[in-house]
């Protein structure tokens, strides 16, 4: 079967790829899309016998005969050796995420870096691996002094200033630092082990989901819809990408030989005011604040996706698609009503908890 994404691609689809963090929001979609494209997939989860982690994956239409669920222990040395041995490629989505921690270094930063070391070491022992696609985050780009960024346009040459985060401790700083140090460590080890590594840095991932609970990234994106004022500060100026586009981008980067280095996976930049104006058009009955002065200054900035587009990738979904498909998914799963039809649209009881869980690391960020 020939690949369908991109013009410059590998001649034939590999037989077998490994997806780590397969039970997360991005991981489930990635497994689904890979199976649809004809790949055989070895998917790692913490406990293959836990139906909460595996039911969605096992019920995928193409799963029978082509999906293998295996145990993957991200924080144990050697915990991925068996999972990646013999595969042609690896999509590393797993990320240890703990947001109720006493010690940011012990509970967030160190585990993230250690997990990266373990997966890269495992890949170094698997001579069949052609390429690793590593899911990082725009959080590894975005947090630096804006005056240092020409026209406030962030590209792949930008790295989050770890020293600034450690000094100023902005909300969410342990996650920003963990993603930055993990990606830096991944490139360091890839060079040492002579591995072909490409990283992709998603912004706020929106759109439909396969899980039975709303992913954290979608809870942030839909906070205007649900009236969750706490998260409005997160989206006062943010960059979005549709789940379909970011999944296709992962596979595109795996299949395109010319891909190298980092790639920002972002499609739309919007302020909370612009998002609110769009929502009023999409859902005329929605009740929104008359102004957003309470979120503070909205500083324009942009995520530059030109490197990915120049390679031949095309983004297909705009912000309207993201909101419409995300809301539709929530309504169909019984997690909310259409905006304006109920005063009680809170998603809080149904948001997927990632505390203590191995996820794909797609948490809500100030991107």
TrEMBL record:
> Where is the NAD-dependent epimerase/dehydratase domain positioned along the sequence?
17-259
What name does the UniProt record give this protein?
NAD-dependent epimerase/dehydratase domain-containing protein
Q: Which InterPro entries match?
A: Epimerase_deHydtase, NAD(P)-bd_dom_sf, NAD(P)_dehydrat-like
The answer to whether keyword Oxidoreductase applies is: yes
Output compositional bias ranges, type Polar residues. Answer: 342-357
Q: Return the PANTHER family for the record.
A: CINNAMOYL-COA REDUCTASE CAD2 (PTHR10366:SF852), NAD DEPENDENT EPIMERASE/DEHYDRATASE (PTHR10366)
Q: Pfam family of this protein, just one?
A: Epimerase
Please give one Gene Ontology molecular function term for this protein.
Answer: oxidoreductase activity, acting on the CH-OH group of donors, NAD or NADP as acceptor
Q: Where are the annotated segments for Disordered?
A: 342-367
Keywords on this record?
Oxidoreductase
């Amino acid at each position: 079967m020939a690949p369908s994404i991109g013009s410059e691609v590998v001649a034939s689809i590999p037989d077998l790829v490994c997806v780590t963090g397969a039970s997360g929001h991005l991981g489930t979609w990635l497994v689904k899309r890979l199976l649809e494209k004809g790949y055989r997939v070895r998917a790692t989860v913490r406990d293959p016998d836990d139906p909460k982690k595996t039911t969605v994956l096992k019920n995928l239409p193409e799963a029978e005969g082509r999906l293998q669920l295996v145990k993957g222990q991200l924080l144990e040395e050697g915990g991925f050796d068996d999972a990646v041995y013999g595969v042609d490629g690896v999509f590393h989505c797993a990320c240890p995420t703990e947001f109720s921690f006493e010690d940011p270094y012990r509970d967030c930063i160190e585990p993230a870096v250690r997990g990266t070391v373990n997966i890269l070491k495992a890949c170094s022992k698997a001579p069949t691996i052609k390429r690793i696609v590593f899911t990082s985050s725009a959080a590894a780009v975005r947090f630096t002094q804006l005056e240092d960024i020409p026209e406030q346009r962030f590209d792949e040459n930008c790295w989050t200033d770890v020293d600034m985060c450690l000094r100023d401790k902005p909300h969410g700083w342990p996650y920003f630092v963990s993603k930055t140090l993990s990606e830096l460590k991944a490139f360091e080890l890839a060079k040492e082990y002579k591995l072909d590594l490409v990283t992709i840095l998603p912004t706020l991932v929106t759109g439909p989901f396969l899980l039975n609970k709303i992913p954290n990234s979608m809870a942030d994106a839909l906070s205007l819809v649900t009236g969750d004022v706490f998260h409005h500060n997160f989206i006062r100026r943010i960059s979005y990408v549709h789940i379909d586009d970011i999944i296709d981008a992962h596979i595109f980067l795996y299949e395109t030989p010319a891909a190298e280095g980092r790639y920002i996976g972002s499609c739309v930049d919007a302020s909370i005011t612009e998002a609110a104006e769009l929502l009023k058009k999409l859902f005329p009955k929605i009740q929104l604040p008359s102004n957003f002065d309470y979120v503070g200054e909205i500083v324009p900035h942009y995520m530059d996706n030109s490197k990915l587009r120049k390679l031949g990738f095309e983004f297909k979904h705009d912000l309207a698609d993201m909101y419409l498909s995300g809301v539709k998914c929530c309504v169909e799963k019984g997690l909310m009503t259409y905006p304006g039809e109920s005063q009680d649209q809170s998603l809080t009881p149904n948001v997927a908890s990632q505390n203590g869980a191995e996820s794909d690391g797609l948490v809500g960020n100030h991107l």
